[in-house]
Amino acid sequence: MDIRRRPPKPSLTTQQPPPPPSPAAGNPDSSSPKASDALPLPLYLTNGIFFTLFFSVAYFLLHRWRDKIRNSTPLHVLTLSELAGIISLIASFIYLLGFFGIDFVQSFISKPESDEEHQRFILHEDRNIHCSLPPVVGAKAKPPMDLPEDDEELVNCVVSGRIPSYSLESKLGDCFRAAKIRRQAVQRLTGRSVEGLPLEGFNYDSILGQCCEMPVGYVQIPVGIAGPLLLNGCEYSVPMATTEGCLVASTNRGCKAIYSSGGATCVLLRDAMTRAPVVRFSSAKRATELKFFLEDPLNFDTLSLVFNKSSRFARLQGIQCAVAGKNLYIRFSCSTGDAMGMNMVSKGVQNVLDFLQNDFPDMDVIGISGNYCSDKKPAAINWIEGRGKSVVCEAVITGDVVSKVLKTSVPALVELNMLKNLAGSAVAGALGGSMHMLQILSLQFL
């Protein structure tokens, strides 16, 4: 294939004034004849005449042929008017065919342009183009801020505030390098060394936008295994991440005592996550009206449909309300599948609040969480109503196991339970009567 390349343009300092364009070169299209140039009338008028002629003659011939069929007259017997109509129909059809295929007709009428005409057309277009160089195709756009290549300069920019610390990952595109630079900036700002905090050996890309922002390192926690725990006829190994001595050993001793006594049984009573927004009205009466509306069983199905749109796993189970003056605390309980599901619960609650604004436009949403949930803190409502998984477990430990495994006696263990878990908790005003159950549970999630 013959590819013709446009010659390079001369520089601005040596550029000569262009020669006066010739009549042919002034308009490249002027030398190309058009099909409409051969028409004696304007194009729009000629088109209107032939369109009218085509449809009027077609209607006339169809009307005549219908009369011949009714009168049993042969169709091939033509009058002078019918013959003229057929000729006009054919002529108008040929014109319309050529009109809609004007490009096809143009290719036969116009002669092929020579190389000189192509060259004149290119030169004419070049005069209309600005002298600046065209943009490079595929070139990457510059970042909004030129980042220095040296890490030391980046640290100085973070310390001075020219580069926000939280934007290092997005600007550098390297999470490990961002953590390293942020780590050095923290040392300069605080005047404290963080050399004891590990940096290498962790995939910082895995936590970007997920579970930790602005990392400067990570913490290594040893993980121990307690068990096996015999629960409902199945054996489970319990992983525990902790740096506290004797905790895994103590838990393992309890698992051994349960296993030696035939195991434990457990029943799931309820599985529901909660979220309780707080809303405010102009009067306590309006707050109670919304309370009655939400707790009415007739409205539960409608509210469930609105709530369940947030996720295919979230399913609303119940709504509990508490009035405090003009404020209303609405506690939503729902199942969340295998996930903790706080995000899907919050989205479902927001859907319901938006829906309630239609019937209660004076409702002012103060917060998506009003601590009536209650999340990440001990509360009596969670102890009474439950939050998350509510279970009941039972294990019967024999006296021989108490003496051999736990190294104590049954009367001494019962007395310790009364004085510590019941009386001691009451004196301290503690919620719950356990020893350190929450600590053992939390270590399994680290």
TrEMBL record:
- EC class: oxidoreductase
User: How does it sit in the bilayer?
Assistant: Multi-pass membrane protein
- The Enzyme Commission number assigned here is 1.1.1.34
- Per the record, GO CC terms? endoplasmic reticulum membrane; peroxisomal membrane
Write down the CDD domains for this protein, in alphabetical order.
HMG-CoA_reductase_classI (cd00643)
Location(s), subcellular: Endoplasmic reticulum membrane
Any single GO molecular-function term of the entry would be: hydroxymethylglutaryl-CoA reductase (NADPH) activity
Q: Enumerate composition-biased segments (Low complexity).
A: 24-33
Name the InterPro entries on file: HMG_CoA_Rdtase, HMG_CoA_Rdtase_cat_sf, HMG_CoA_Rdtase_CS, HMG_CoA_Rdtase_eu_arc, HMG_CoA_Rdtase_N, HMG_CoA_Rdtase_NAD(P)-bd_sf, HMG_CoA_Rdtase_sub-bd_dom_sf
Q: Name one GO biological process term.
A: sterol biosynthetic process
Q: In which pathway does it act?
A: Metabolic intermediate biosynthesis; (R)-mevalonate biosynthesis; (R)-mevalonate from acetyl-CoA: step 3/3
Which superkingdom, per the lineage?
Answer: Eukaryota
Which segments cross the bilayer? 41-62, 83-102
Keyword line = Endoplasmic reticulum, Isoprene biosynthesis, Membrane, NADP, Oxidoreductase, Transmembrane, Transmembrane helix
Cite the Pfam families for this sequence: HMG-CoA_red
Instruction: Specify where the region named Disordered lies, as residue ranges.
Output: 1-34
Family named by the database record:
Belongs to the HMG-CoA reductase family.
Protein name per its UniProtKB record: hydroxymethylglutaryl-CoA reductase (NADPH)
| Organism the protein comes from | Sesamum latifolium
